[in-house]
Amino acid sequence: MNAVVRSSALEPTNPVAFERDLPVISNEPVNGEYRLMILSAPVELLEQCHAGQFFHLLCPQIGGETPYLRRPMSIYGFYPEKGELHFLYKVTGEGTRALSHLKTGDTLNVLGPLGRGFTIEDDWDHLVLVARGVGLATLAPLALEAKRLGRKLTAICSARSADVLMSVEYFEALGARVITVTDTDGTSSIENLEAVIEQLVALDGVDAFYTCGSNRILRLLQKIGERHDIPGEIALEQQMACGLGMCHCCVRPFRKDGGQVNLRVCREGPVFDMQEAMPW
Amino acid sequence: MVDLGVDVGSLKLKNPIMPASGTFSEELADVFDLDLIGAHVTKTITRGLRDGNPTPRVCEVSGSMLNSIGIPSKGVGYFIEKVVPFYQQYKTPLVVSISGNTADEFATLCSEVTVEGVDAIEVNISCPNIEEDGKAFAIRPSSTYDVMCKLRQATHLPLWAKLTPNTGETPEVARAAEEGGADALVVANTILAMAIDIRTRKPKLGNLMGGLSGPSLKPIALRMAYQCARATNIPVIGCGGISNAEDVLEFLIAGATAVQVGTATFIDPAIMPKIVTDLEALLASGGYSSVRDVIGSVIDEEQDPGVVFMEAAP
Questions:
Q1: pLDDT in tens, B65-76
Q2: Torsion angles phi and psi, residue A184, rounded to 5
Q3: What positions does the domain Dihydroorotate dehydrogenase catalytic occupy (chain B) (predicted)?
């Protein structure tokens, strides 16, 4: 029996999450470690997207890979005007290896957009994002949103060496100021990062911090944020099963109301208040 | 048109497809119209607040998954104030899954959730019983019978006993549940399993061990559903690895009256309404006018009962 039911026929009248087979426009390496996958997506799906949200990808069973559960992946870019959804990923396991086999014209089943994205309050004029490595992929659409809203953005990009610095051109093209720090030239130490950020706070004023991926950067931004009463948000990861909030697999602990609570990364997150987040 | 309606005891379902506890919640309303399925089954709740187990709570094993979530619960108060009213906007029956550490605590909760808007109670007797060294109630016929008797006295609602595959006495446990007052059996839950990361040599789950679910559980659950249908006179609801309409038909033929779909929803969140549509088409192509006609239609009359109820592999 091959009666394929289009899920759109079963959807509630105003779906907030879509399950769709999206055609692959391209899926190419961008440097030694990362690949950029561009999918063709309908405008009604792209208009639901916000920076910081993710899609739950049904990685294909091809190339000898047999991933089973869906894999969550943060949105790298979404462009309703050209009908494109972008993901930047590093091949690390079975799911991403399977993704790397996708070719132009293949389709990928996606579920999303899911979760709660970044907040940009109306009176936040200078946004500062600090991230390392592939974490920058999660913060990239924030630069897009800042540009759309006409806010000033400074991106502090940390990496092992200059040749793997992700997204520098991307951020610069969006009018962001980019500060790069690397392990090879010794500028990525927490001490130097603290000095760089303190200088930004002193000279330009900072309205909000955004980060993801690094425990050391989280601790640093919590300290600086507390010192100057600057709010911040962090995007977090956790192993997921359903991606919708049903299974409670993806919880992490947070400080709330003087105690500690478990929140679901897929539903209450993946973006959380930076001061409530707990280093791991 | 095929009539997909089934009766689980006194409870009439418009079709035999419902979610397995723990793989369904209000959030799924974001994806499909929840009135398309036969029943709603909540995630297991406990009386008090529970945080659940350490992470990672899930990992993948070839074509299936392991989980050890540990029944995080917001407690019975939240459930009655928030969860029950949410489901009352639907016409579909609501089945509440509950669990307790002791038979008395279990029975108290059973009585507390016997409220307007709840149509049946699924009692997760596969959970550890702290009075029996942490062994699940449904591992032994005696502890199954004792807890079911107490639960029976605590509610007038239909009681569905959820059995565990972690027993060597499936037919005996099924009969004990029936004698203790169960109106139906949910067969089965996840089976205890483990996975280790060979590079770090650490177990892949924070709780070290967890429950296996997904397609690799299906033959075990099917065997148990068959045994339970043969051993008792109450409806059996099949559960374990069901991913498509063919899997549903297999359980119905084995003797299940309805089925629960669990892990498959994590792969395709709209799988349940798709299965309803596909099941109707599958039955129509087989010339059936009612799903009831296939229930228990397995051709096994030549076999000795000793074979049917065997506990060791032949």
A1: 999 998 999 999
A2: -65, -35
A3: 6-283
Number of continuous H segments (helices) and E segments (strands) in chain B: 10, 16
Rounded CA-CA distance B63/B292 in Å is 31
Bridge partners, B210 (sequence order): B193
Start-to-end C-alpha separation, chain B: 42
Q: Are the beta carbons of A241 and A80 closer than 8 angstroms?
A: no
User: Is B11 in a helix, a strand, or coil?
Assistant: strand
Total Cβ atoms within 10 A of residue B92: 18
Which of the four CATH numbers 2.40.30.10, 2.40.280.10, 1.10.510.10, 2.60.40.10 does domain A18-114 have? Answer: 2.40.30.10
Question: Could B72 and A251 be called an inter-chain contact, meaning their C-beta atoms sit closer than 8 Å?
Answer: yes
Q: Is A185 exposed, middle or buried (0-12, 13-18, 19+ CB in 10 A)?
A: exposed
Instruction: Please count the helices (runs of H) and the strands (runs of E) in chain A.
Output: 6, 15
What number is the ipTM of this complex?
A: 0.91
Give one DSSP letter per residue of A195-238, joined into a string.
HHHHHHHHHT--SEEEEES-HHHHHHHHHHHHHHT--EEEE---
The model's pLDDT over A60-78, given as tens digits with 9 standing for 90+, comes to 999 899 999 999 999 999 9
Q: Which of B59, B110, B127, B239 is catalytic?
A: B127
Measured between alpha carbons, how far is A194 from B262 in angstroms, rounded to an integer?
Answer: 48
Domains identified in chain B and CATH numbers: 6-293 (3.20.20.70)
Could you tell me the pTM of the whole model? 0.92
The B residues from 27 to 86 touching A (CB cutoff 8 Å) are 27-33, 36, 43, 51-52, 55-60, 62-65, 67, 69, 72
Q: Do B55 and A238 touch (CB under 8 A)?
A: yes
Question: Is the CB of residue B114 less than 8 Å away from at least one CB of chain A?
Answer: no
For B178-211, write each residue's pLDDT tens digit. Answer: 999 999 999 999 999 999 999 999 999 999 999 9
- For residue A38, give the DSSP letter: E
Looking at the complex, does the CB of residue A69 fall below 8 Å from at least one CB of chain B? Answer: yes
Both tokens assigned to B148: 């079911």
* Residue A175, token pair as written in the block: 């009018």
Q: Is B127 designated active site? A: yes
Q: CB-based contact (8 Å) between A62 and chain B?
A: no
- Distance from the Cα of A197 to chain B's closest Cα (Å) equals 33
Bridge partners (DSSP) of residue B192 are B211
Q: How far is CA B286 from CA A218, B246, B258, B265, B279, in A?
A: 60, 12, 19, 26, 11
Whether the domain at A18-114 and the domain at A126-234 fall into the same CATH topology: no
List chain A domain ranges. Answer: 18-114, 126-234
pLDDT mean across residues, chain A: 90
What average pLDDT does range A91-108 have in this prediction? Answer: 96
Rounded to an integer, what distance in angstroms lies between the CA atom of residue A226 and that of residue A198?
12
Residues A167-212 have pLDDT tens digits of: 788 888 989 999 999 998 889 999 999 999 999 999 999 999 999 9
A126-234 has which CATH code? 3.40.50.80
